[in-house]
Amino acid sequence: xxxxxxxxxxxxxxxxxxxxxxxxxxxxxxxxxxxxxxxxxxxxxxxxxxxxxxxxxxxxxxxxxxxxxxxxxxxxxxxxxxxxxxxxxxxxxxxxxxxx
Length: 100
Hints:
0% of the residues lie in helices and 56% in strands. With 100 residues, the chain is mostly beta strands.
């Protein structure tokens, strides 16, 4: 069964310096391999982002410990197995902290 995102990524806003998470949920048999992209570039091995995939629930999570203005981007989660591929994408907007 090809991967299908049963809960897609949603556009979100984050405050500079705060933690933030992006979540989606995927189904597929066998459980798909999940990869994350920022503006089209794979970030699976980037230490600035923590990724988690729970194959039993299908929950895909991308965590940012501290959001920076540069993190404002289009994030994509891609799931693949031998039956096919699926992806979902959303925009993260970062609100600047005002320094007095």
